[in-house]
Amino acid sequence: MGRVLVVDDDEVIRQLIAVNLTLEGFEVESAYDGQNCLDRVHDVNPDVITLDVMMPRVDGWETATRLRADPGTRHIKVVLITARAQEDDRRRGFEIGVDAYLTKPFDPAELIQIVRDLAKSDDPRD
Questions:
Q1: Could you tell me which residues come within 8 angstroms of residue 65 by beta carbon, excluding any fewer than 6 positions away?
Q2: Of 5, 14, 89, 118, which cross-links 77 as Cys (Cβ 3.0–4.6 Å)?
Q3: What pTM was computed for the model?
Q4: pLDDT digits (tens, 9 = 90+) for 73-102
Q5: How far from 4 is each of 85, 91, 95, CA to CA, in Å?
Q6: What are phi and psi of 53, to 5 degrees?
Q7: Which residues lie closer than 8 Å to 123 by C-beta, 6 or more apart?
Q8: How far apart are CA 19 and CA 86, in angstroms?
């Protein structure tokens, strides 16, 4: 199916996302904050990154901005997953260049569908 890097400072949320995606056939790696994501992204080489916004060290906004600025990572699909549900937050995410925006609490089935669609959209077999 593809490889996903799950980034969230909350271990329970990370595990919830990872288990659901693994059961759907994705290969899943995880990172505990934005800096850890940026440190690992080139080694993991994910097709999709699920990214929390509110995290210590480097938040999701800055992480997404850096991913988009790096020619080696700008092609990776990014899903922001956050409790920040204001329209300004959604707009900010799309201005940065994220591919999807999902608010917590989220429906795992909706997340799986979003990740599946994004992973397929980059598949050269399509």
A1: 96
A2: 118
A3: 0.92
A4: 999 999 999 887 788 988 998 999 999 999
A5: 23, 24, 22
A6: -90, -50
A7: 2
A8: 28
